[in-house]
Amino acid sequence: MSKPILSKPWGGRFTAPTNEFVEQFTQSVSYDQRLAHYDIMGSIAHVRMLAKVGVIAEKESLQIIDGLQSIADEINVGQFSWSTELEDVHMNIETALVSKIGDVGKKLHTGRSRNDQVATDIRLYCRDEIDAVIEAIQFVLSALATLAEEHADAIMPGFTHLQSAQPVTFGHHLLAWAEMLLRDRARLQDCRKRMNILPLGSAALAGTSYPIDREFVAEQLEFDGVTSNSLDSVSDRDFAIELTSALSLIMMHLSRFSEELIIWMSQASGFIDIGDAWCTGSSIMPQKKNPDIPELVRGKTARVYGDLMALLTLMKAQPLAYNRDNQEDKETLFDAIDTVKACLQAYVGMIPTITLKKERLYQAAASGYATATDLADYLVKTGLPFRDAHEAVGKIVQYAIQQDKALDELSLDELQRFSNVINNDVFSVLTLEGSVAARNHIGGTAPEQVKAAIQKLQKSIKEGF
Ligand code: ARG
After folding, report:
1. Are 137 and 345 in contact (CB under 8 A)?
2. Ligand 1 atom with minimal separation from the 89 CA
3. How far is the CA of 325 from the centre of ligand 1 (A)?
4. Domain 122-202+231-363: which topology?
5. pLDDT below 70 — which residues of the chain?
């Protein structure tokens, strides 16, 4: 057999060396080498299967596995030399195997293609990364639970339209964030289930003529089953899009938290402080201490959304089955995963450094007529229809604003000018403490409920679902 002009595994039918630009343009090894560990795992499972069904000899499989393991070691210690000429992680490893163990290494690729190989690698990679993101979410949840516990009854203004609405407890507010992250965790777990199916065995697109045992490979790689259609298996990237979509939602949530932290730390609000180690300064204004961590998290949300858009757009016009377009899935997917992990890590570190300016929060709640609804409810309890109560209290608020007084600073006499059913007991409902304590039902802001919700959250963190 004459030697091929190209030293590439696919070189046989080519008569000219690859153009240098093309080599650079088509390579993915500079970034997909991140999948090496999963590529080797998949290859080992594949080779065990080939020996089991008798396509290669047991002895050959052991030699190949040995070779792959020593390549894994080289990669781990940074001694493996990656070559652009060999395009991607798959061909780099396969070529290294052949040069390490000789011709028997050439049997590794029997009954598979890089198309089902890469689809397998990415699923394995995503599966691990999902576990890592879930773990990071758990840490953020714990940090939130701890802070919420500390401030279960600290009163702050609750907002709608960013206008003071009704008093809430800081613990309750923090637990709203926790709810979002609990849904994020569930979404990742759900996406992991759907992702955990083995595409290997689909080969290039049509399956393979060897008597392969896909279930055996799936078992070794801890997949829950095998995919059902070879064409779909090699081309499907739904799982990556689903994951990036779940990651985008995480970022949307973190970005919302960030926005609030930034507002709360502003001089205008003065509700919280973030520890010095988690803030940065200004090169010109010596007094500055900026909430750059939440700002960057808010900013990085944009790139994760961009990653999601890139993946959706990547897939929208692809005919079946595999197309090289799919190589473009990796950098965006990696970027989304890396970004989310870093942002969650930032939150894990930053949350415990948040300190509350309790008095300021209390004063803000006290000065925004936040107990007006409580006053209306008080009137309703004496038999007034809610709409009439609403109107009466509206007038009381208007009067209080003119007098530059808070509601509980009005005298009984003043209040009675607007409604003769008001009695001395009204003052207990006008206090902030009374207002929050009254909302004592599941999902309400009463400190008692917040404490119960923290217990529930702690349990859910422990159980992991
Ligand atoms: N590097 C490729 C990718 O990431 C691997 C599959 C290439 N397959 C092919 N037939 N060119 O998608």
Report:
1. no
2. 1
3. 9
4. Fumarase C; Chain A, domain 2 (1.20.200)
5. 1-4
